[in-house]
């Protein structure tokens, strides 16, 4: 009878040990996934800051005006080039 109890307790002990090993294995994988996600979040923060900087640089009025003049051959509107339309043909 004592042998059966020892065998059952040994089996339970082995089961608990295997469960502990499995839990540690899963914890390591979860920790690795967490570190990867944190690294990706840091990279996304860096990318976001760079995009905001690019947007502020690209959206400046002087740059837009310079591109309009250079690439689109646009000129600044002056009063003598302005035409006013009136209703009714008068």
Automatic annotation (TrEMBL):
InterPro entries: Cell_div_FtsL. It comes from the Bacteria. Keywords: Cell cycle, Cell division, Cell inner membrane, Cell membrane, Coiled coil, Membrane, Transmembrane, Transmembrane helix. Residues 27-54 form a coiled coil. It is a single-pass type II membrane protein. Signal peptide: none annotated. GO terms for biological process: FtsZ-dependent cytokinesis. It is found in: Cell inner membrane; Cell membrane. Its main location: membrane. GO terms for cellular component: cell division site; plasma membrane. Essential cell division protein. May link together the upstream cell division proteins, which are predominantly cytoplasmic, with the downstream cell division proteins, which are predominantly periplasmic. Part of a complex composed of FtsB, FtsL and FtsQ. Belongs to the FtsL family. This is Cell division protein FtsL. It comes from Pseudoduganella namucuonensis. The gene is ftsL.
